[in-house]
Amino acid sequence: MVKNSDTPSAPTPPPVAASPLPQSPAVAARFAALHARPVILEAEHLTCEFDSERGRVTALRDINVRIHRREIVCVIGPSGCGKSTFARVIAGLQPVSAGQILVDGQPVTAPGPDRGMVFQGYTLFPWLTLAQNVRFGLDMQGRAENTADAEARQWLDLVGLGKFADSFPHQLSGGMKQRVAIARALAAGPKILLMDEPFGALDPNTRAQMQTHLMEIWRNVDITIVFITHDMDEAILLADRILVLKAHPGEVLEFLEVPVPRPRSLAQFNTPEFQATRRHLDALIHPAPSAHDPDHAPLPIIRLTQSGDDVE
Amino acid sequence: MPLLSVRREPPARYRWLLWVLAFSLPLAVWSAVSYVPWLWHPQVVVTDPGSVSWIQPGLRLERADFTKEVATAKSSGLTPPSGNPANPLYLPAPHEVGRALYTAFTTPPRLRGDKWLHESIVISIKTIFYGFILSSIFAIPLGIACGSFPALSRMTEPFVDFVRYMPAPAFGALMVAIFGIHLEPKVAIVFLGTFFTQVLITAGTVRRVDPALVEAAQTLGAKRAHLVRRVILPASLPDLYNDTRILIGCAWTYLVVAEVVGVSSGITFFINQQAKYRNFDNVYAAILIIGFIGLVTDQLLSFIGARLFGWKLTRRSRTRTFLGWLFSPRDVLYFPGKPTT
Q1: Burial class (CB in 10 A: 0-12, 13-18, 19+), B256
Q2: Among the listed residues A209, A246, B183, the one whose alpha carbon sits nearest the alpha carbon of residue A237
Q3: How far apart are CA B87 and CA B251, in angstroms?
Q4: Could you read off the pLDDT of A14-61 as tens digits, one per residue?
Q5: pLDDT recorded at residue A4
Q6: Between chains, do A113 and B230 touch, taking CB under 8 Å as contact?
Q7: CB pairs below 8 Å between A and B: how many?
């Protein structure tokens, strides 16, 4: 275990500061209720370093977060902020360097069925039918053949793919595959569902549908969701709270309560709460561009066309 | 689209043609060299010795020697010998080899104790079968274990890699000392030649399994034995099957060296024996037969593989496409009333 010398070893700070965005009384009441729920996932001084081809990288540094039961938390931040690492650490796929993750009070040491995960690449088992894919987790728990199969088919029905139960993954579209992946993760009965940019590879239409599906599922299933994304609109649409990380090293910038009332829909995009949250996130993640930043400097291009041959 | 485009498949209608060309072009070159008298033909087969006393009809002479004899005979006013240009005995014409493909099976062995061609082939197939099956029984599980557990791989593979560089035929004398002179040392050499490569190739293939699949299974609660049996094994099976197909070809290579160890046997013995009698057409026929056996085995395995691992959706094999077309139910013709789904 490597203890970072510059990690402040103060006692765990209160996880939530006062929300910087105004909340309506209904939303405030909802957050009060949310905070009263038991903590299901807790990160304590979580630090994660690993060796890459560019030397030692601190992907996450001193992350302290408490997530309550049946919350949707979106993790957002610029690329390289360690948001994927955060999901992998919770899943137990990535060892921590210091600190720990507690799920229901138990420290995480290895992957386990209490933390399901949905990956951006669909990771369905291509040699199994959809029903067999979904019952994989049940089989691992040693469930009886017929009950596992029946349950798998119920989960497929839940994501609207019941009639494809005996198809193979390569016969499905990307959105359908990801629905199966969600059903497969949920069938194993996890307490926490980790989703690592699950809709990143989908076209905008399918993506919007999947977001609606996900909220539908979340309303009906006892599950806490940690959703990694780089899409601010997606985060605002889905999340109760948004964990904003900054890059190099990955540290918590803010743990934001989203003031958009529930139930959510795509129609709320133009509401003042949504837009205020959007502006707030934008300012956090994309600070005012400086002229020295090569990404924002104007292109030093000279005119290569005839004068008068203008396109705008 | 032009036929020759960089990294682009040719149009479908050309593919059959190209396949036919793949075989007919070499055959055309061979035919040209065999049948066009002014191409190569470095020798002359004498038809009429003329007045040169030491020349017999049917004798093969180098062309230079023959022209010298003709010149000498002419200058001394004698009848010059005549003959036809010919290729050396070791390059029979296609039709001769074609005939030998049949007659090699009907020619009785010259010596008592020699084998008929079909007996030789059976012995060869037996040798390769035992050697390859034995190798696979040990190498594939070991390879899967090495590919799944890096610690095992670090413990095993350096030594395997080291032995792999020792040529299997070098163990010939040793194998004869251990196993005697009959089938066993030959099987052992095919085994030695295949086993070590097979371990490394199997381990490599298993290592190429998408790590995301393994991670997904872990988050679903799969532990060590389940991960290997339920994820790594099925995920790598199609590729392992393909590796096996390729390695059978490798085993055939070792067969030929294996069969000269101890008492020479099998198709190699047949080839050596026929070469000794200068029946080169039979030699070519035997080599072609090995090629046919290889091709047929490979196509058969590829056909079976495509059926077993349909989910992998590799390029469909030609045989399968053809057989599929041949045996596909033709609803329109035979079941006119049946709705097509």
Answers
A1: middle
A2: A209
A3: 34
A4: 444 456 788 889 999 999 999 999 999 999 999 999 888 888 888 899
A5: 46
A6: no
A7: 75
Cβ contact B170:B258 at 8 Å: no
The percent helix, strand, coil of chain A (3-state, each to 5) is 35, 20, 45
Burial track A252-262 (b if 16+ CB lie within 10 A, e otherwise): bbbbbbbbbee
Report if residue A149 sits inside a domain.
yes
Same domain, A180 and A210: no
Cβ distance of A125 and B234 shorter than 8 Å: yes
Nearest by CB to residue A123, choosing from B216, B311, B313, is B216
Whole-number average pLDDT of chain B: 87
Q: Are residues A202 and A247 in the same domain?
A: yes
Question: Domains of chain B: which residue ranges?
Answer: 32-88, 104-309
Domain count, chain A: 2
What is the spatial distance between Cα A103 and Cα A114, in angstroms, rounded to a whole number?
A: 9
H or E element at residue B301? helix B280-308
Clarify whether residues A105 and A35 are in a common domain: yes
Provide the residue range defining the domain that includes A130: 126-189
Residue B216 in contact with partner chain A when CB distance is under 8 A: yes
- Which CATH class, in words, describes the domain spanning B104-309? mainly alpha
Q: What is the pLDDT of residue B117?
A: 86
Q: Is B215 in Cβ contact with A123 (below 8 Å)?
A: yes
Confidence (pLDDT) at A9: 45
Name the nearest CA neighbour of A133 among A169, A163, A162, A171: A169
Q: Do A185 and B219 touch (CB under 8 A)?
A: yes
Half-sphere exposure of B39 (CA within 13 A, CB side): 9
Chain A: closest CA distance from residue B187 (Å): 35
Is residue A312 a part of any domain in this protein?
no
Tell me the C-alpha to C-alpha distance, in Å, between residue B251 and each of B135, B153, B157: 10, 24, 21
Residue A257 lies in a domain: yes
Closest alpha carbon within chain B to A188: B220
Nearest-neighbour CA in chain B from A47: distance (Å): 21
Determine contact, residues A198/A164, Cβ cutoff 8 Å: no
Reported ipTM: 0.85
Burial A57-95 (b: 16+ CB within 10 A, else e): bbbbbbbbbbbbbbbbbbbbbeeebbbbbbbbbbbbbbe
Nearest to A115 among B216, B219, B309 (CB): B219
| Residue B247 structure tokens | 């390695």
Q: Is B84 on the interface with A (CB under 8 A)?
A: no
Could you tell me if B234 and A125 are in contact, meaning their C-beta atoms sit under 8 angstroms apart? yes
Contacts of A136 in chain B (CB under 8 A): 217, 220, 222, 230
B211 in contact with A at a CB cutoff of 8 Å? no
The answer on A152 and A265 residing in a single domain is no
CB contact under 8 A, B218 and A111: yes
Query: In this structure, what token pair is assigned to residue A172?
Result: 């499905």
